[in-house]
Amino acid sequence: MSVSGWPFASRVRCGGRRIESRQLRGASLALVASLTLPGACSPGPRAPPVSTSAATITAVSPSGAVAAELSRPLHFPKVGRGPCPASRGRSIDTPTASGVALGSGPVRVFISNAGDLRHGRAHLASTGVAGWLALKTHFFTPPAYKGPFLVCAERLDHAGPIALGATPTRAGPLLVPSGPAPNGAAGWREFPYSTFVEAAGCYAWQVDGLTFSELIVVRMLPKLNAESSP
Predict the structure, then answer these.
(1) pTM of the model
(2) Under a CB-based contact definition with an 8 Å cutoff, are residues 186 and 193 in contact?
(3) What's the count of helices (H) and strands (E) in the chain, helices before strands?
(4) Residue 32 is inside which H or E element, if any?
(5) What phi and psi, each to the nearest 5 degrees, are found at residue 33?
């Protein structure tokens, strides 16, 4: 899948580490929203479907001061061989999307893949990039929070890559400015943004806003056998 509309790149810090983050402009997020993940259409355990309306994102670059303020120390736990402390999900309806969302703070995430999202478990799906699997993730905020936020990610059970973006090679932290977003309605803001990994395991997103920092943990399960290869 070719991705256009990523002309601006900003340096964003996740826990003090400098990470190249392409700002989301033009059709970029619309392409992420339309990314086809076969696992989401495969037989097996199902997550309640997430329905979204098509829209285009034009992001405004947050100021350097805001980006620096959101770059908090990372507080990902080390799970090792212990159980994955997956976040519980609950059903949420927004004006343009519905499904089981993970998280309890001002920023939450829908996952379109098959799985048991009420217990924070989702099957990975194929992508068009060799060696990478993905969750189709859809971050959103309710009307009560209109401020900026930063999403970073890490594997918890042992070392392993994780990438957020349109493709694994066009990826970086999700940095959202204050104010309204073209995706969403009635004060809800919505940001489709895929999460790519190389293997099943225990992973988490750290979401930092001006007055909060929350971990959302997901147990990524192996790709379903019924899914055909890309």
Answers:
(1) 0.77
(2) no
(3) 2, 19
(4) helix 28-33
(5) -65, -30
